[in-house]
Automatic annotation (TrEMBL), chain A:
<keyword id="KW-1133">Transmembrane helix</keyword>
<feature type="domain" description="MrpA C-terminal/MbhE">
    <location>
        <begin position="675"/>
        <end position="758"/>
    </location>
</feature>
<feature type="transmembrane region" description="Helical">
    <location>
        <begin position="682"/>
        <end position="700"/>
    </location>
</feature>
<keyword id="KW-0050">Antiport</keyword>
<dbReference type="Pfam" id="PF20501">
    <property type="entry name" value="MbhE"/>
</dbReference>
<feature type="transmembrane region" description="Helical">
    <location>
        <begin position="495"/>
        <end position="514"/>
    </location>
</feature>
<feature type="transmembrane region" description="Helical">
    <location>
        <begin position="74"/>
        <end position="94"/>
    </location>
</feature>
<feature type="transmembrane region" description="Helical">
    <location>
        <begin position="593"/>
        <end position="612"/>
    </location>
</feature>
<feature type="transmembrane region" description="Helical">
    <location>
        <begin position="444"/>
        <end position="465"/>
    </location>
</feature>
UniProtKB/TrEMBL annotation, chain B:
<feature type="transmembrane region" description="Helical">
    <location>
        <begin position="157"/>
        <end position="178"/>
    </location>
</feature>
<keyword id="KW-1278">Translocase</keyword>
<keyword id="KW-1003">Cell membrane</keyword>
<keyword id="KW-0874">Quinone</keyword>
<feature type="transmembrane region" description="Helical">
    <location>
        <begin position="127"/>
        <end position="145"/>
    </location>
</feature>
<dbReference type="Pfam" id="PF00361">
    <property type="entry name" value="Proton_antipo_M"/>
</dbReference>
<feature type="transmembrane region" description="Helical">
    <location>
        <begin position="237"/>
        <end position="258"/>
    </location>
</feature>
<feature type="transmembrane region" description="Helical">
    <location>
        <begin position="409"/>
        <end position="428"/>
    </location>
</feature>
<keyword id="KW-1133">Transmembrane helix</keyword>
Amino acid sequence: MGLVVAIAAVFLAVPLALLLPARRWRGLLLAAVPAGVFAYFVSLLDRAAEGRPLAWSAEWFPSLGVELAFRADGLALLFGLLIAGIGAFILVYAEAYMAGKPGAGRLEATLLAFMGAMLGVVLADDVITLFVAWELTSVTSFLLISFEQEKLKARKAAVQALLVTGAGGLALLAGLVVLGQAAGTYRVSAMSAEAVAGSSLATGALVLVLLGAFTKSAQVPFHFWLPGAMAAPTPVSAYLHSATMVKAGVYLLARLHPVLGDLEGWRPAVVSAGAATLAVGAFVAVHERDLKRILAFTTVGALGFLTMLLGLGTELAIKAAMVFVAGHALYKGALFMAAGAIDHGTGTRMVDELGGLRRAMPWTFAAVAAGSIGLAGFGPVLAFIGKEAALEAGLEDGGAAGGWALAAIVFSGALFTAAAVVLLRPFFGAERAPGHPHEGSAGLLAGPLALGALSFGLALAPGVIEGRLIAPAAAAVAGEPVKVSLKLWHGFNTALGLSALSVGGGVLLGFAVPRATALTGRLMGARWFPSGPKVYDWLYYGMQRLARFHTVWMQRGYLRGYIAVVLLTFVGLAWAALVRWGGSIERDWLTPAFYEAAVAATIVAGATTAIVHMSRLAAVTALGAVGFGVAIVYALFGAPDLALTQIVMETLTVMLFVLVFYRLPKLVDRGPMRRRLRDGAIALAVGVTMTVLVLASLGHQQGQPISSYFGETAYLEAFGKNVVNVILVDFRSLDTLGEIVVLGTAAFGVFALLRVRRWSR
Amino acid sequence: MNGIDVLGPQISVLVAAGVVLVVDALFPGQRRLLPFLALAGLLTAALWTTSWVGRGDYQTVFDGTIVLDRYAVFFQYVFAGVTATVILASIDWVNREGRRQSEYYALVLTVCAGLMLLAGARDLITIFIALELSSIPQYILAGWGKDAKSSEAGLKYLLLGAVASSLLLYGMALLYGVTGTTILPDIAAAIEANGESYRALLIVAMTLLIAGFGFKMAVVPFQMWVPDVYQGAPTPVAAFLSVGSKAAAFAVAIRVFFEALGADFLSSDWSMIFAVIAAVSMTLGNLMAIVQSDIKRMLGYSSIAQAGNFLVGLAAISVAGEEFTLGASGILLFVAAYAFTNLGAFVAVIAISQRINSDRIADYAGMWKTSPFLALGLAFCLVSLTGIPPTVGFWAKLYIFNAAVRADLVWLVIVGVLNSVVSAYYYLGVVRVMFLGEPGTEQRFRASPSIAVALTATAAGVLVFGIVPAPLMSAARDAVEIFAR
């Protein structure tokens, strides 16, 4: 129950944020909510470490076995602590960042809603519960990215992010449903890897789930939305795009690793996606000049790093991933918030326009320095421990996957370091800035400094988290107990050597960045280069073009075309059925008598005349002849009453036609020959089909004709001598009543039309 | 008397139609009363239906042509609710039009009587008559507006409807010809006896029925009338068409295909046809919806895509036994969800277009500032149409896709999911325009009380069943139990 209360408390703070006045203490007050949740999660750590995590569930959609279920195991708590802890800092930061601007309350409210949704994602134990929260994060993040709605860029980025993550989310939904089907339950903690592996649906579930996770966590080739999302205000970028939302995909991979990790496709797919993302993210990062975009691409790289480790799936790799999740959230959160402070203090985020800020903005400098050491991954920071463990995991693996992972880590390690150097450059050299640089307020600095300090502190005293937090989290991912002992210093070993090598190279590269990246930058800017945003645009506008073309082609507005499509569909389906299943046509037809032949000839002649004659009146008269011919057929084959009805109807119709046609202009043109031939062919096809069907159905007369029953019982039961009358008013009186109502209604229509005529005069 | 009792709801609706006409003729000054008389008739029908829930046993009347079961009860509620919402949403529009008020309400009620009759019809002739009873007033209503576009809509709808009706009639005649009966269970028995010997004819009859019902469902390739008619017809009428007549087509299709044509060798064929139609409808409907700039046309195309979603339920039946009706119950859930959601969207569109005199999506810019209530209600319904939680639309989609996965139709689920993405683009595009765009005028406006009631009721349904979906679901499951085997 406590878990539900924790999530509900965050959501309940949403209206509070909207109602409170815009004062400095509002951020602090609101931050108290996630801080409280943080403290509550800390109190749950021991239970999780002992292997009896707090759980709660209630029936939600019983017929599908969907439950509202939450469970706070180590993995959930690791992410929950990051979300609540960093969230508290972000709220304080947001208040200072907006500095009384209108909409600050709205921003904080949306951040809180997002936070609640995110807690729902990581605490959910039922995959459908997880999905519901997952979609909520997509929607709230859409609102957050488009917060500065007057900017076209922000709107476009928001739509892009929503489409990519929303599309991924729906793939995820399908994947989770398939997974639930394969596992026989939607409860994550009750899913067994054997059951899933044994199901024929396993591969489908894996592919769809991975699509969902990859889009959310910005893996190549879906990575482009994340840098675009930097159009959001900095508090949003710092929160969503470093610490939380983008990690949801990684979280999902970790969460489902015990269930899906042993499937054949997992390792190659996840490792290659992760390694490619790591390399691409790091590579593009050094080409960027905007602080936030540099951070965005390094985040893409870091997400690839985590994904890759989860793909490897060894015990060491999992441990490394868990440590790095925490380490990355701390240093990247600090960097983003500091970037916002620089923007605030100088009026720009472009590194080339800045210099010598360390005197004017010493505290910001401290935060950026702490973060940069994390980014470079070399020094007494938590991220370093994670990276060393990852290198060891790659070395230990020995296989091709491990080799690729190793190469990717070393390559990107250098580029990350170069990016860190680029980030630090605005603080050195001659003082340079568009505006007068000044230090940020306490609210702006508290967050980055605290996170930066934690990044160091936890690395120096890893014992605080290794047993209580990292071990249970790693155990939840591995699906079995894991022993964790974190050490900052492992002695001189291969991993350290590789690390030092890549960092050293990175520092050199960092000083040469503008020159070193000139050529590759030009290459990436080339028109033909299939960069993510371009591919997205191609798809996006391509779909619109296709849709437009299709609509014009399909919905021309001509009734003739519509009817032709309906009829041709019918003809096609009917012939498909006849060819596939075969129908037989009775061969022993009677030879028609001469008068029967004459009637048939009349009908054919009438129909032909109706088509070819240019005078409307003549055509209608010819159509009348067809009707009378049909009436004679009725009469000849023993249905005189029907024949009489037909004659009356036919007369009336012809008269009505004549009355109406009399008022219409003369028919001069029937349209081009080609169209007439086409229409004729369609009509012929329908006619032939119907004829064949009638003939084919003749052989399947079943049972007694119903007429004998009516004939026998009409007088005995209903005391009527006219069988037809009895049928109408007695046996099927209800249908007759219906018909009367229909006719009455039709009369309304006629009446209404006549009145329209009168009004229009 | 039993038969009259069973037809009580339909009769009370028809009586209400008569009362509306008579009151208008006798007391022309009391026109404001008319919609409430109509609502009273619908309420009577709903209460009458409720009285069965207690007695609720399966029974047939009129020689088996009409049946009373939970399935019929479910749909009678749906139709009463839909009609009531449409009437509430029409009040402003009708008052503004000024004339022919009683005729309008009477026709709407007649449609409702026809739809309700369809819910319990179990005989081909009765089905056809009920279908015509509901269709002819709709043709008239589509042409009810004063402009040429409305007349065009009415005429197109009538002519295409006549073609569809004739195809349906051919199909029914063929079915009667080969089985010798028009009562659905008797048809099933006849097919059971020796149906395989005339399989081809049964399939042809089936395709004719699909064409006829498909027209009313508005699925590809029988959908062409939809955008023209939705755009041309008065908006309340378009709302009625998009929900009422579509739901009725599915109600009767489920009954016919499950009760009469449920034999294995047939269901494997029709489920495949439905699967293909579903995929094509979703894809084409969505594709065409994304380029629309008129919200009514957009909703028209999207309703084609939604019908494709419904059809997934008719396709997902290949698992025999207990699961046979899983897809059908999914359709019922979807129908209920869609009724709430689409009506809600239309109600908001009616209110907005009356105020801004435009149906262009671009003119919805900044609606959040000028009319937060309408913007929020519309946005919520559009989110539900996309299938995003926490709305009832999400559960409907989840349920029906789940049924498809169980029926080994993973490909169809993937098509459906891709289409949900496409639909998100245009549904949420409207939301974006409303919330992020700049309004042309700062002048705020309020919805009229009747619109407010209608929108609140539908949006509340979307939300409440989005959070607590279980009751709606169990109602849908109980309703289709009679088709289980």
